[in-house]
Structure of Efflux RND transporter periplasmic adaptor subunit:
Amino acid sequence: MKNTIGLTVAMTALALSLSGCDKAPQSKEKALLNVDVVEIGDDSLGSELHFPAIAAAADRAELSFLVAGEINKINVKAGDIVKKDTVLATLDPTDYKLQVDNAKARFDVVDSQYRRSKPLVDKGLLAKSQFDEIGAQRAIAKAELELARLKLSYTELKAPVDGVISRVPVQQFENVGIGQSILNIHDATQVDIRIQVPDVLFSKHGGKTREENNATIRPHVRTEDGKEYRASVKEFTAQPDPETGSFMVTLTMPMPEDKFILDGMTVEVVVEELGLYNDRASQVEIPMETVFNEDGDALDPSNKFVWVVGADNTVEKRKVKVGELTPTGVLVTNGLERGDKVVSEGVNRLRAGQSVNIVANKEIN
């Protein structure tokens, strides 16, 4: 009987012991809450905004002849790269050469008469008034000769700068008039980039100098192949587009050595987001859902907190100072440092000192 009682007690104790072992891990698992975090990286200040943009010639010229005539030859086509003073097109010079020959003949006659008359005036054999009239005729003939030579030189259309031919709307043997467009040339050393900027951004930078904007925004132009080139602010409009409400900002940059960015090409402008919103280098950007208020104090902008996960995987309630809103989050000007892990989801389920299990860690770059 005693053995039976003892065996029963032993089995009961063993069962209780095993039951206790099974419940301990379940209690521990309930204490660990799965959370997602964002980690403040070294490049948090480099959050970027992207703007679609159109390339435009920094310096363009629509070239035309200063005299009328038939196009004798076109030496270039669209896309050709030319040097300054390169002959781009010519007119038939026949008529203009004849005008030079006629003017030269008239000048030679009057000039010869002028030279013969001068000694006669000195000897008193020719009236001074007659000699002055011959001198005037000589000056007129000389001016006509110079004009004829100038018109002949105008039958050659030369490149005013080093550039790229972008358009040739005429053809050989076509008769063209004075001032009629023959071709377009763009500066090959510089290119402009035009972007539409929302009024909320323009209002923060429209009143600054180009130097201040370039130091703050640091724009880059990204081409289709992914390469980036440093650009600078050239100018901006003072009035918004009536249809879009945005402002036109023109950037400028040297023409890349490895490619030509031609007028009308689409590119992308990349700017540092924090540079657009604030000049303080100490702030970081975090998602809006990471920030919360004290209970019952949701409207107080100065009473903002985040949950920061420590090295021991426990959470710390940390007060932060928030700044301006951005399209992707909010700027924190004080309270966070590089390497901090901020809980991004489930912030309302946590309490100070609670242990958590990080299931997703996204670094903010």
Notes: The longest strand covers residues 315-326. The chain has three domains: 31-45+281-364, 49-58+189-277, 93-154.
